[in-house]
Amino acid sequence: MNDTTQFAPEPTLFEARLHPHRSLTPVGFVAVMAVIAGVSFTAGTAFLMMGAWPIFGFFGLDVLLVYLAFRANFRAARAYEEIRVTPSVLAVQQVSARGDARKSEFNPRWVRLETARDDDYGMTRLALVSRGVPLVIGAFLGPRQREEVAHGLAGALAAAKR
After folding, report:
1. What pLDDT band is residue 10 in, cutting at 50, 70 and 90?
2. Which helix (H) or strand (E) holds 90?
3. 14-17, Cβ contacts within 8 angstroms, sequence gap of 24 or more
């Protein structure tokens, strides 16, 4: 007997890739740095003309520090989380800015969605709880984005438990 039937893959109930929000584009970064450098150079030149030449170097140091802060911010934006829910598996992969990955898999029937809210700020925490152990997800998201993820996850978990 030749059985060529294959198992159909499970349907995906929810899938999301979460990234930290960064409002400054690379073009915007160049524009901001050009303005900061221009203002610092102009002010530094004024002090240089008055004979306070060491001040000129401090204005250059300020530009360097702002540049390094922006680069650190862009590096931190490389972090992301991937969440996938099927009827039998809830998989979460959290990747840090350095590329370190942490994978977690749960049975969606045994996972509870836990949220914390602030009256003024909105949703401040979103976690998946399995066996009493919480896994915080979307920590880098804003309250509105956490709400959207929580809504989608709640629907997917409810569908998986049916």
Report:
1. confident
2. strand 90-95
3. 14/83, 14/84, 14/85, 14/152, 14/153, 14/155, 14/156, 15/82, 15/83, 15/84, 15/85, 16/82, 16/83, 16/149, 16/152, 17/80, 17/81, 17/82, 17/83
Q: How many CB atoms lie within 10 A of CB 58?
A: 13
Q: Helices (H), strands (E): how many in the chain?
A: 3, 7
Cα Dmax for the chain: 96
- Give the chain's mean pLDDT: 91
Cα-only R_g, the chain: 24
pTM above 0.70, yes or no: yes
Q: Are 124 and 143 in contact (CB under 8 A)?
A: yes
Question: Which tens digit of pLDDT belongs to each residue from 51-92?
Answer: 988 888 888 899 999 999 999 988 888 999 999 999 999 999
